[in-house]
Amino acid sequence: MASPEYGLQAYLWWDEEIARRDMDLIDDAGFGWVKQNVGWRDVEGAAKGAFNWYFTDRILGDAEERGLKVLFRLDSEPAWAALEKGVRSHNGPPEDVEDFGDFCHALAERYTGRVDAYQVWNEPNLAREWGGYAPDAAEYVELLRACYVGVKSADPGALIVS
Q1: Residue 87 in 3-state DSSP?
Q2: Which residue among 21, 97, 113, 115 is least enclosed by CB atoms within 10 Å?
């Protein structure tokens, strides 16, 4: 990776018109990367293995049209994977980190060579970003490991960001 490379985080998920406008602004400003939050629950929320790729496909296609590199930030467990089954926190760790690893693998497999980097969770050192639970470094390392193995087994060239 060349240094320095710059990017912006954008909220490109729901409104396609605004998302495309924002990506044009990112590109016009000379940034080379766009970071998009991909909520696990928004892609695999109905049940394990039930994927909805609509938004990730669109966002990635729009970024590719503009020549932007993509970093997907992965977090937000679905209710079926919550630490206390069925209790949906805002953004908590899953009961079984391997479920998250499986999600990371499926995502990286679908987008091999197209998503440049994956960020594993957001600020897990803060209770508000860890489902209201006390942050747990060892638990985060297990989550990071599961996602790393999942992504790298599908797309060895992808970067993993903690």
Answers
A1: coil
A2: 113
- Tell me the pTM: 0.94
For residues 27-42, one letter each, b for 16 or more C-beta atoms within 10 angstroms of the residue's C-beta and e for the rest, the string is beeebbbbbbbbbbbb
Contact 116, 160 (CB under 8 A): no
Give the pairing type, strands 33-39 and 7-10: parallel
CB atoms within 10 A of CB 77: 26
Write out pLDDT tens, residues 68-120: 999 999 999 999 998 776 665 778 899 999 999 999 999 999 999 999 999 99
CA distance 100 to 95: 9
CA proximity to 92, closest of 51, 128, 46, 117: 128
- Give the burial class of 142: count Cβ atoms within 10 A of its Cβ; 0-12 exposed, 13-18 middle, 19 or more buried: middle
According to DSSP, residue 82 is labeled: B
pLDDT digits (tens, 9 = 90+) for 120-150: 999 999 999 998 889 999 999 999 999 999 9
- Residues 118/137/90/16 CA torsion (nearest 10 deg): -10
